[in-house]
């Protein structure tokens, strides 16, 4: 199912949770809403579900006005952050709940059909053997999968997941996210999940929606948002960045009054920030490079080493990845030259 | 926790729901109906009786009210009530602290049985709480003959009233302290002892400061019940005017003699005590919660 | 020294904290003196009666009627408190209305107000010329000095129990549970019956049982309003007092034992219920 969100805004008192959000989610897509806490991502998810109503804007499901329908009529599968499993029901009954409350009554499945459907779903989430247990007897990862099976039981038109892996420990988290991706490839239901973990979003989603302060900063594939961040926020939020404050004057970039030989990338006069990935800053001889600095510390294992450098002039410390073969000693004066970079106007 | 709600001790949880607007709620007419029914019920059963006490007490003005309160029998009843409460509350305060220490700071078998036994007086009819002492110390009681020989009066005298009151208010302090002290664990005490403190030093410098508000709270509840106890005291007191009449018993006598205004005047003092206790409850809950 | 003894007995876990033997000893002694020995005296006294005599006392018309009135009216009062208590707790937890905090605090009035004060206040209110009684006279309802009066008093003293046992459970109830049920297609009625009631059910039952237990033993607030007509509006605790005043100690004791056993059964049931409730709501 396709979802169209147009100009959606939502305020909680004086706080603007969402400010004019536009988003189109294609049928069968797996989309991540990524952002820091307070960015409005959960509010957006709850508005899609019908758990929250926007102050203005439109939400269409396959062209139909979803806002005219209550949460129960929208047929969304919602997986809550803390799972919201019914503690007084067994795993089986939790999954069967949506089938047992279906209205009108004549659309309700017969008991054997319900059993068959629930068992199939429990097999799908690999929990058939736990059908008679109660939620308090399960591990976090198991609860998560029960919650997912319960949401899928109503054959939702869209699956919504709020921080699906937030409450799990690192190892289970990694397993489950791979598993979720596989599951989505099998069942192909349009899915949206909220996360504050970039790794999770980049690994699992077809497209990532990066949000900050109630606005969408960028929409794109994981590669796009990582390789071509549209804004300074996205560059800083996703992946590691070296950030150097500079100024643009007379069509040239300046660092503490010294002209630096790099492109302004269309930034006009005023303060700006230079963003470089740690592995796209090369360490060269001191004279010819745009920046000069001193090696403070060299550490790390693996193919690259992490080098901490203090920039000359202001002592600003940056961390650069240098190839293992490069010889560097503490105290050495070196030059830094970005091989690939982005320049964004404005101060930090 | 057994008969927890038997007392004021049941905490009012702070009703601070999240400010998130509820999508899942009843339609407005249903909401107003529910609130309306709830308020009507509470008004008829709680507010109106409370107002009535003060209204009746002052029905003939302030001077007759003060006159009723300063009548020698009323003064004697007030004095006796204060004395009974002071003795019973102190006894239960000491017992509560000792019992809470034993139960909360150690792990031993049969603990839950002990807690249930401490709570037991809550589930006994006050009349029975008085009756048992009549059976023990009354004229025909097990020790009645012995007591008469030695000219010791327990029943129809102060000791009987105190005993009945202590039994009725037995669990109040202990049950406030036990859950809190269990929750606080033993780490701080262990730290104090590892630093060289003696058992008593540990108790007075570490444990007691940690539970002072809960203790005060328990004492207030205990006191309210001790001053207001009617059934148990009625059985053991003998209703001797000016001698063994506590305030609640004096209220009964005046009421049965159709001295309604005087009766409500004495009642208004106890109602005031109840209100003060409730206000203290609301205030102290915050401090206890912080402990 | 006490520590080593206790360890040898093997009934407590070792601890560096002192005073176990002393405090437990004092606790048990005081408990025995004030609670256990007096209660034992009650049972000992009944042995002065033969079983037939005991049965004759307990099944005499007046005693049986008194017990029926006490237990029957207490049951009805507990039901009334169950229903209205639920409505009150729902309003207090779920809705905002003016004066909410004050009403919340007032719930405890029946715990704090001495029973004699409540008794005379209710009697005066519901007398035929009282504020509330005069409203009922045109409807042909007489409250004071009738079983209905007893019921009013029992509702009053049992009022806080349901509210105070259910309130924390309802407050704890995760909003997400209801939202989850709604996303799965449940309507409001289904959410209440299938999700909310099963969770708070045990606490409702506990509150009901506590309210019932309290009402059965109640004396002070009832005797003023009841009229105390034997076989009609005489409650069991009052009959105990009357027998005592007639110096029929054994009779009084027999009735007391029946009531006490009933309260023990109730106490056990309540303990079970609370455990069940805690397990069910996952608080254990």
Give the SSE map:
The complex is a heterotrimer of chains A (348), B (291) and C (284).
Chain A: E1 3-12, E2 15-25, E3 30-34, H1 41-49, E4 56-61, E5 64-65, E6 76-79, H2 91-100, H3 111-124, H4 140-153, E7 158-162, H5 170-187, E8 190-195, H6 198-204, E9 207-212, E10 215-220, H7 222-227, H8 232-237, E11 242-249, E12 252-255, E13 258-260, E14 270-276, E15 281-284, E16 291-299, E17 304-311, E18 317-323, E19 333-338, E20 342-345
Helix pairs in contact in A: 2-3, 2-4, 3-4
Chain B: H1 28-57, H2 62-70, H3 72-105, H4 111-119, H5 126-137, H6 144-149, H7 158-168, H8 172-184, H9 187-194, H10 199-210, H11 212-228, H12 231-237, H13 247-256, H14 260-290
Chain C: H1 2-9, H2 20-46, H3 51-58, H4 61-94, H5 100-106, H6 109-112, H7 115-126, H8 133-136, H9 147-172, H10 175-183, H11 188-217, H12 220-226, H13 236-245, H14 249-280
Helix pairs in contact in C: 2-14, 4-9, 4-11, 7-9, 7-12, 9-11, 9-12, 10-11, 11-14, 13-14
Description:
The complex is a heterotrimer of chains A (348), B (291) and C (284). The mean pLDDT of chain A is 90. Chain A is α+β, with helices and mostly antiparallel strands and 348 residues long. Chain A has helices at residues 41-49, 91-100, 111-124, 140-153, 170-187, 198-204, 222-227, 232-237, and strands at 3-12, 15-25, 30-34, 56-61, 64-65, 76-79, 158-162, 190-195, 207-212, 215-220, 242-249, 252-255, 258-260, 270-276, 281-284, 291-299, 304-311, 317-323, 333-338, 342-345. In chain A, strands 6-7-8-3-9-10 form a six-stranded mixed beta sheet, sandwiched between helices. A five-stranded antiparallel beta sheet of chain A has the order 13-12-11-14-20. In chain A, strands 15-19-16-17-18 form a five-stranded antiparallel beta sheet, with no helix packed on it. In chain A, strand 17 and strand 18 (317-323) form a beta hairpin. Chain B is mainly α and 291 residues long. Chain B has two domains: 1-57; 64-290, MetI-like fold (Orthogonal Bundle). Chain B starts with 27 loop residues before the first helix and ends with a helix. With 284 residues, chain C is mainly alpha-helical. Chain C is built from 14 helices and no strands. The model of chain C is unreliable at 1-8 (pLDDT under 50). In chain C, helix 9 runs antiparallel to helix 12. The longest helix of chain C is centred in the first third of the chain and has 34 residues, at 61-94. Chain C has one domain (54-280): Orthogonal Bundle (MetI-like fold).
């Amino acid at each position: 199912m396709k979802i169209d969100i147009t100009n959606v805004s939502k305020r909680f008192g004086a706080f603007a949770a969402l400010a004019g959000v536009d988003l189109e989610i294609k049928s069968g897509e797996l989309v991540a809403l990524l952002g820091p806490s307070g960015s409005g991502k959960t509010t957006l998810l709850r508005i899609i579900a019908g758990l929250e109503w926007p102050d203005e804007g439109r939400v269409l499901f396959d062209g139909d006005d979803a806002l005219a329908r209550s949460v129960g009529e929208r047929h969304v599968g919602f997986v809550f952050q803390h799972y919201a499993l019914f503690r007084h029901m067994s795993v089986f009954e939790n999954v069967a709940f949506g089938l047992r409350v279906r209205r009108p009554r004549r659309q309700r499945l017969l008991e054997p059909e319900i059993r068959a459907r629930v068992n199939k779903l429990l097999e799908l989430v690999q929990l058939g053997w736990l059908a008679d247990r109660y939620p308090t007897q399960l591990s976090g990862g198991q609860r998560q999968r029960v919650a997912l099976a319960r949401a899928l039981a109503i054959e939702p038109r869209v699956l919504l997941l709020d921080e699906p892996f937030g409450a799990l420990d690192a190892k289970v988290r990694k397993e489950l996210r791979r598993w979720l991706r596989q599951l989505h490839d099998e069942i192909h239901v349009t899915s949206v999940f909220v996360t504050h973990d970039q790794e999770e979003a980049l690994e699992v989603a077809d497209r990532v929606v990066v949000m900050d302060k109630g606005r969408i900063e960028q929409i794109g594939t994981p590669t796009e948002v990582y390789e071509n961040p549209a804004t300074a926020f996205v560059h800083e939020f996703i992946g590691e960045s070296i950030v150097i404050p500079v100024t643009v004057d007379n069509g040239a970039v300046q660092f503490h009054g010294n002209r630096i030989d790099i492109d302004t990338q269309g930034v006009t006069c005023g303060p700006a920030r230079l963003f470089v990935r740690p592995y796209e800053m090369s360490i060269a001889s001191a004279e010819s490079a745009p920046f000069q600095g001193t090696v403070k510390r060299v550490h790390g294992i693996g193919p690259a080493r992490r080098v901490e450098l203090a920039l000359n002039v202001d002592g600003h410390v940056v961390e650069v990845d240098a190839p293992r073969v490069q010889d560097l000693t503490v105290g050495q004066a070196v030059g830094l030259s970005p091989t690939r970079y982005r320049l964004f106007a404005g101060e930090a | 926790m057994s008969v927890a709600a038997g007392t004021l001790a049941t905490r009012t949880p702070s009703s601070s729901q999240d400010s998130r607007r509820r999508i899942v709620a009843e339609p407005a007419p249903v909401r107003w109906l529910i609130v309306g029914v709830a308020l009507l019920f509470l008004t008829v059963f709680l507010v109106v009786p409370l107002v009535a006490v003060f209204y009746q007490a002052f029905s003939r003005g302030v001077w007759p009210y003060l006159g009723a309160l300063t009548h020698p029998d009323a003064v004697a009843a007030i004095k006796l009530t204060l004395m009974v409460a002071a003795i019973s509350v102190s006894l239960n305060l000491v017992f509560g602290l000792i019992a809470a220490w034993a139960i909360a700071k150690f792990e031993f078998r049969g603990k839950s049985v002990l807690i249930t036994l401490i709570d037991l007086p809550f589930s006994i009819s006050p009349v029975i709480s008085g009756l048992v002492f009549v059976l023990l110390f009354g004229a025909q009681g097990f020790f009645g003959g012995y007591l008469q020989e030695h000219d010791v009066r327990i029943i129809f005298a102060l000791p009987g009233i105190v005993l009945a009151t202590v039994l009725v208010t037995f669990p109040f302090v202990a049950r406030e302290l036990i859950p809190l002290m269990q929750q606080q664990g033993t780490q701080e005490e262990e730290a104090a002892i590892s630093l060289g403190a003696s058992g008593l030093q540990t108790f007075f410098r570490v444990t007691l400061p940690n539970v002072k508000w809960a203790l005060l709270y328990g004492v207030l509840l205990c006191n309210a019940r001790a001053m207001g106890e009617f059934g148990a005291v009625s059985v053991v007191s003998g209703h001797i005017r000016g001698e063994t009449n506590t305030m609640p018993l004096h209220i009964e006598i005046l009421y049965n003699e159709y001295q309604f205004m005087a009766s409500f005047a004495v009642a208004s003092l106890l109602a005031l005590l109840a209100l003060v206790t409730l206000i203290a409850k609301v205030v102290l809950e915050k401090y206890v919660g912080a402990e | 020294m006490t520590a080593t003894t206790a360890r040898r007995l093997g009934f407590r876990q070792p601890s560096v904290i002192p005073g176990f033997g002393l405090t437990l000893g004092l606790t048990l002694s005081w408990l025995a003196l004030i609670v256990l020995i007096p209660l034992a005296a009650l049972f000992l006294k009944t042995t002065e009666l033969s079983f037939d005599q005991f049965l004759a006392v307990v099944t005499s018309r007046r005693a049986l009627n008194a017990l029926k009135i006490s237990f029957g009216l207490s049951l009805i009062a507990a039901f009334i408190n169950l229903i209205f208590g639920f409505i009150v707790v729902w309003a207090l937890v779920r809705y905002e209305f003016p004066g909410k905090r004050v009403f919340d605090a007032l719930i405890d009035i029946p715990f704090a107000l001495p029973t004699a004060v409540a008794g005379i206040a209710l009697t005066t209110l519901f007398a035929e010329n009282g504020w509330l009684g005069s409203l009922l006279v045109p409807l042909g309802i007489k409250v004071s000095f009738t079983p209905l009066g007893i019921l009013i008093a029992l509702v009053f003293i049992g009022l806080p129990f349901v509210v105070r046992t259910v309130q924390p459970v309802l407050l704890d109830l995760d909003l997400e549970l209801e939202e989850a049920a709604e996303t799965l297609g449940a309507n409001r009625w289904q959410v209440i019956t299938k999700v909310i009631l099963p969770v708070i059910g045990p606490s409702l039952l506990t509150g009901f049982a506590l309210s019932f237990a309290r009402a059965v033993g109640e004396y002070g607030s009832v005797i003023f309003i009841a009229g105390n007509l034997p076989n009609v509006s005489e409650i069991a605790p009052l009959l105990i007092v009357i027998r005592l005043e007639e110096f029929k100690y054994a009779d009084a004791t027999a009735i007391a034992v029946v009531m006490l056993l009933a309260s023990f059964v109730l106490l056990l049931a309540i303990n079970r219920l609370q455990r069940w409730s805690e397990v069910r709501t996952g608080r254990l």
